[in-house]
Amino acid sequence: MCDFDQELKNLALEAQKYSLGTVERRQLIHRLLILLHHSEQLVHPPVPFQLQGAYEEIYDIALQRLFSYLYEKIEYYKPERAGVLQWVNYLLKIRFPDAIKELTNDQRKNRVLQENLVTNHRIEQEQERNTKNHQITSQDIMDYIDQDPKGVFRSTYIGNNAEANFRFIALKLVEGYKLDEVAMLLQVNRNTLRSFYNRSRRKLASEIRQNLEI
Fold first, then answer.
1. What are the DSSP E strand ranges found in 60-175?
2. What is the distance between the alpha carbons of residues 128 and 120, in angstroms, rounded to a whole number?
3. At 214, is the secondary structure helix, strand, or coil?
4. Rounded distance, CA 120 to CA 156, Å?
5. I need a labelling partner for 113 at 20 to 30 A (CA). Which of 17, 31, 122, 160 fits?
6. SS3 for 180-204, per residue?
7. Which class for 1: exposed (0-12), middle (13-18), buried (19 or more C-beta within 10 A)?
């Protein structure tokens, strides 16, 4: 067994020693995925031709699902059956169809949301003829995210990492932090963070619009 395979095995077995919910378990699984990702030995399953332009986002979703599974089910790894790399690549392959489905569902919902926004905008234009509306600023939006009265933004986070929530990420970016810096603070992959933030921003647009009456 080469040094790389042994290191992966050691991390997996060490993570099994810590119960679900512990910081140590999450850090070990995160370290395991970082090593695998940097090794460039993870599989890249194919996607339908029409989705090739969204491959990176699909891959990020699959990696998030993989992280969640490893974090919750690392005890399922049995070194006598297969190496960590072989086991993880198998898990990644079977999660790809779900990642594709999740992305296409998001795209469908976004199209519906955009259509609704256009309709709402036309209604608002009619209302504005008789009512002087308050001008909503970007600061109003950030204040609402910061206050998070319903807890929606705090409860939207990456995998099992509650610290990597939408509210924290959005406020840090507004403060002037770069994406790489936020990813380092949260100990998450930069591409995963970017994909999560973009998807969450689209999903939460209706929440912000509804409560600020934009």
1. 157-158, 161-165
2. 12
3. coil
4. 26
5. 160
6. HHHHHHHCCCHHHHHHHHHHHHHHC
7. exposed
User: What is the distance between the alpha carbons of residues 139 and 189, in angstroms, rounded to a whole number?
Assistant: 28
Asked if 92 and 42 count as a contact pair (C-beta separation under 8 A), the reply is yes
Please tell me the pTM assigned to this model. 0.51
**Per-residue pLDDT tens digits for 114-144:** 554 445 555 555 555 544 445 667 777 888 8
Q: How far apart are CA 81 and CA 23, in angstroms?
A: 28
Q: Record the tokens describing residue 174, joined without a space.
A: 């507004």
Q: Given a cut of 80, is residue 180 above it in pLDDT?
A: yes
The answer to whether 159 and 68 are in contact (CB under 8 A) is yes
Q: pLDDT tens digit string along 64-89?
A: 888 889 999 999 999 999 999 999 99
pLDDT at position 85, please? Answer: 93
Number of helices followed by number of strands (H, E) in the chain: 9, 2
Q: How far apart are CA 32 and CA 83, in angstroms?
A: 13
CA 64 – CA 126 distance, rounded (Å): 44
- C-alpha 118/C-alpha 122 separation (Å) is 6
Contact 95, 61 (CB under 8 A): no
